[in-house]
Amino acid sequence: MRKTTIWQTTRKALTVTALATMVTGGALLTAGTASAATTLANACGGTVNGGMNDTVAITGSSVKELVRAGAKEAGTLALYDVAANDIAKVNTISVGSVPSSAGGTIDGKTIGAAVRQAVKETKSWGLGLNPDKTLDTIAHKVAGSCGLTTVATNYVAPTLPTPGTTAPQQGGNGGGSNGVPSSPNLLPGGSNGTGYAPPREYGNLPVAQPGVAVAPGVRYPANSPLPGEGGPQYGVPGADGQAGQGTDVRNAGNAEALATDGLPGGDVQLPMLLAVLVLAGVTAALVRTWVLRRVS
Question: What angle separates helix 80-88 from helix 108-121, to the nearest 10 degrees?
Answer without folding.
Answer: 100
